[in-house]
Amino acid sequence: MDLDLAGRTALVTAASGGIGRGVAEALATAGVRVAISSRTRALLEEVAETLAASAGGRPKIVVGDVCAEGGPAAIAAEAASALGGRVDILVNNAGGARPITGEVDESYWEMSFTLNFMAARRLAERVIPAMKAARWGRIINISGALVAPKLNAAAPAKAALASWSRTLSIELGGFGITVNTIAPGRIDTAQIRKLHPTEQSRADFIKQNIPAGYFGEPCDIGHLVAFLASPLARYINGAAIPVDGGAVRRAL
Ligand SMILES: NC(=O)c1ccc[n+]([C@@H]2O[C@H](COP(=O)([O-])OP(=O)(O)OC[C@H]3O[C@@H](n4cnc5c(N)ncnc54)[C@H](OP(=O)(O)O)[C@@H]3O)[C@@H](O)[C@H]2O)c1
Fold it and tell me: Which portions of the chain are predicted below pLDDT 50?
């Protein structure tokens, strides 16, 4: 299927590994000119090198921390400039969970909300004016479980992301901009390897929770992002789509 994405531009955060890398690959393969961002230049260079021959060309590298003060503004500005002036597609992928072990202080909660929600909002606010002017845009937010089985700060922050995303879709729908959320189940990345460090722990989790019988791969998220980013998905707005192998859902 031709996704009609050739020539579009995208900024993907946390694209030096895991899901973000899979998203960057799917978009670049579909002909999108991609800016990949994270904190580590060497890892981004590696990703850019592997995608150098893609239809979208070698991704632009934008080094930055989405949690730093002024980070999102600087990342958005550098990406727009590297992409010839505009970001058509924003993929807010940076995020993550840290389990609570023992006492945690305020900074634990604040950091999670900054990483999983505030950074996405700040980035979106930077790219929306140009999307409105162009009367075309795509914002795709990567959420996750909205209710965790054990207390952690990521699930409530992801719930904030999903709630904001839905309302934003209402506000922007009339401008040809869609805002959607993808809720990954277990996707095999470094973050998930830390959570399930042994073969046995992975097998046990899969048996209890994932009808498909395996962890997903970053490309499983990437393919949906590419479709949602495309003009073909113009009528999908404000959706929250689980990609989880049919897992028992805590995402909705
Ligand atoms: N994997 C899953 O099963 C799963 C499930 C539910 C939700 N999710 C969500 O999917 C997204 C991606 O998860 P993942 O599993 O691919 O994560 P991951 O494998 O842990 O990858 C983390 C990526 O985030 C970047 N990063 C971390 N902190 C950053 C910061 N402050 N600023 C910029 N970049 C930062 C890292 O790059 P640098 O170190 O180079 O900065 C790396 O590229 C997250 O939002 C996560 O919550 C994942």
Answer: none
Q: Output the residue whose Cα is nearest ligand 1's atom 1.
A: 187
- Closest ligand 1 atom to residue 66 Cα is 32
% of the chain residues with pLDDT over 90? 92
Name every protein residue with a CB atom under 6 angstroms from any ligand 1 atom: 13-14, 16-20, 38-40, 43, 65-67, 93-96, 115, 142, 144, 184, 186-187, 189-192
Residues contacting 214, CB < 8 A, separation 6+: 206, 245
* 197 domain-assigned: no
On whether residue 152 sits in a domain, the answer given is: yes
Q: Which spans in the chain are helix H?
A: 18-29, 41-50, 71-82, 106-113, 119-134, 154-172, 190-195, 199-209, 218-229
What pLDDT was estimated at residue 251?
54
CATH number of the domain bearing residue 57 = 3.40.50.720
Which pLDDT belongs to residue 152?
92
Boundaries of domain holding 23: 9-188+219-235
Instruction: Look at residue 56 in the predicted model and tell me its pLDDT.
Output: 98
Q: How remote is the CA of residue 147 from the centroid of ligand 1, in Å? A: 19
- Classify residue 129: in a domain, yes or no: yes
pLDDT in the model for residue 249: 66
| CA proximity to 145, closest of 185, 96, 194 | 185
Give the closest residue (by CA) to ligand 1 atom 41.
39
Q: How many domains does the chain have?
A: 1
